[in-house]
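pipeline/complex-builder :: batch 7 item 3
reading input block
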Amino acid sequence: MTSSSPAMTPQARAFETMRTQGLRLTSQRKTITEVAFGNREHFSAESLLARSCRRNAKVSRATVYRTLAFLVRAGLLRQVGIGQSSPLYDPNFADHPRHGHFVCVDCHKIVEFHDHCLDVRESIVTKDHGFSPKRVNLQIEATCDALREKGVCPRNPPGT
Amino acid sequence: MTSSSPAMTPQARAFETMRTQGLRLTSQRKTITEVAFGNREHFSAESLLARSCRRNAKVSRATVYRTLAFLVRAGLLRQVGIGQSSPLYDPNFADHPRHGHFVCVDCHKIVEFHDHCLDVRESIVTKDHGFSPKRVNLQIEATCDALREKGVCPRNPPGT
DNA sequence: GTACCTGCAAATGTTTTGCAGTACG
DNA sequence: CGTACTGCAAAACATTTGCAGGTAC
């Protein structure tokens, strides 16, 4: 297992890719990458900067943007346009490239999901149109059933 | 057929909605709406401004943005984040709310498609997660089979 | 006639870039 | 040690907004 195998963490794959491309593993890139993949939450460039600075004072906005661009180019991160003013980044993309997103219209939470039947059908439809699918981006805006029926959203309990 | 029936054109529905909401039908709103729904191509705010100005000199950037926001709010237009710097707007959304987009990685063309099986499966998966789907956004980045096999993309013939 | 709408230009917010200094390998 | 990388601050964009004047109804 030398090069970027799927068994490696996205973080490790990022460092590996930097090494392979002859890019220097600076303390800034290390911090930003660790923070980006430090949890499974989607994040904005600005929040990544804030959290990176908290861990390593020597991180600037410019370097955050430059490192984000690298991670996206490397296929380890994806931008998801969830309709906000600024885009969010999805740290789970490398491990689960085919997952989609529910965006709850009620509580604005983002829930990830994956369905094999959808994958298959998407592939068939794409082929039928003379294409071969490379990357799929599926986002479903939806309302919360529990909230409508019981008045409470299980993902967003009252008193929060 | 009084209020916004599906049989009306999106343009007519836009004017109808303005009237219903007590908004004034100014020459600027008229021009911008007509240009937006004037063909089936996706467009950016900037290109909408340019084309609107060509038809009616008295159209400003601010009014274009304000009118775009209205048309999106009214459900007649949708923003599609096709990865560009600025978002594109989809004039076919009102007539075909469930269609998805192929984005050709080779020629960068956008091709619309619709598949009923996908609709059904999306709905089931959404329900399984405790949601009710309201709006679906599916974007598939793909390569052109004909280009790979024959060296020519039928949507983008050589000499273009 | 008047409230709503528009254009202008400035403000805002986000991302990019040029450059001089810094530090990785 | 040299070259790639960084921080800074300015630039480049995209979009929004306040306000004075214009216009649909």
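note: Chain A has two domains: 1-95, 98-160.
queue -> next item
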